[in-house]
Amino acid sequence: MSRATVPLTARLVRNPRVVIGGIVMALLLLCALFAPWLSPHDPLDQDFLAQLQPPVWSEAAPPAEAGKTPYWLGTDNLGRDVLSRLIWGARTALIVSFAATLLAALAGTALGAAAGYFGGRIDAIVSRLVDVWMAFPPVLLAVVLVALLGTGLTSVVIAIAVVDWTRFARVVRAETQGQRALDYVTSARMLGMSPLRILVSEVLPNVTPLLITVVTLEMGIAVVVEAILSFVGLSVASGASTWGGMLGEGRLYVNQAPSLMLLPVLATMLVVLGLNALGDGLRQELDPVVRA
What we know:
Mean pLDDT: 86
Low-confidence stretches: none
Strand content: under 5%
CATH superfamily: MetI-like
Order of helices and strands: HHHHHHHHHHHH
Distance between the termini: 14 Å
Oligomer: single chain
C-alpha cells in the first residue's frame, strides 16, 4: 500500500512529530482546563516560613510535614508553590496563544485570500501593508501596543494578533495564487459561480491544510511573546501566574534557587518545541506537495 492511499488518521498516528506534539498539546490543555484540581496548592497563597524551598528531590529540601501537601517543585521568594504556579501559568499561555492566533488567522486569511485571488489593486495594497508592518520588530511592536492599550489578557491578545496577522496573510496569499491557476477554479468560473463563492467554497478548503500548520507554529510564537511581555511586567496583573512573570521574579534569586528560573524556561521550551513538532508533522501529512 502506497503512502498516499493510507488513511489520514493512520498517517497521523504513525508520524512521531504529530504524536509528540499532540502529547505536549494535550498536556497543556489538561493543565489549562483542570488547573484548580491539578495544582496541589493555591498559586497565590504565601507561606513566609517556607520561602525559597528547593524541590523535594534536592538534598537541601526540608522534610515533609505530616498531614501537609509538600511543595514538590519548591517555593518562590514569597513562599508560593512553584508547581501550582506553573500549572496555572499553562492556562494563561493557552488562552493567549489560542485567542491571539485565532484573531490573527482570521484577519490574515481574509486579507491574504482576497489579495491572492483578486490580484490587481487589492493585492498591491495588501502586499504593501504587509511589507510595512513586517518592517517593525515584532516583539518591540507588541511591547509598544501593550503599553498603549494597558496591561491585561485582552491587551496582550490584541497586541500579538496585530503583530502576527502578516504571516498568515503572506502564506495564504501565496497559496491562493497557486490554487487560482488550477483547473478546478477554471471549471467553477465556467459554471458561472461568483468569484466570492469560488474563493470561499472552492479555494479556501484547499488552503486549510497549510493554514492548520501555520496556526500551530504561530501558537508557539504567541507563547514566547506572552512570556516576554510577562517578563517585563506588561502582561496580566502583577502576582498572577505566568511563565514569563515567574522567570522575571526568579532571576533575582538565581543564586539561592536556580530552579525558579529553570522550571518556567523548561515549560516554555517544551510547549514551543511541541507545537513546532506538531506543525511540522501536520504539514508533512496534510500538504500534498510535501507528502508526495
